[in-house]
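Weekly modeling sync, notes
Attendees: S.R. (lead), two postdocs, one rotation student

Agenda item 3: backlog of single-chain predictions. S.R. asked that every request posted to the team notebook include the full sequence so nobody has to chase files. The rotation student volunteered to paste the first one in as an example of the format we agreed on. Action items at the bottom.

Example entry:
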Amino acid sequence: ETAWLLALTTNPDFRNAGIGTSLFRAMVDLFRQRGVRSLFLTVAEDNAPAIHLYRDKFLFEVVRTEPNYFGDGEPRLVMEYRFAED
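Predicted structure, as returned to the notebook:
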């Protein structure tokens, strides 16, 4: 019932064209169909475009900060999306 998104990126030449949003929507729909209840991901604290995508478009919430996620001084925000009960 829990899933983690480990990576999502688009080619820099095609950013801001809705590709990331479309990919993400398709992935969320797939997880929903498979019975996932919570989807987690991490994002760099200074990655404003990704945070905007996850928080403002997809309603993820920051649930904690991991100060050394990738080693000393490499913090990440842990974000969660909770699927609505059907």
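Discussion: group reviewed the output briefly. The two ends are 14 Å apart (CA to CA).
Action items: rotation student to repeat for the remaining queue; S.R. to check formatting next week.
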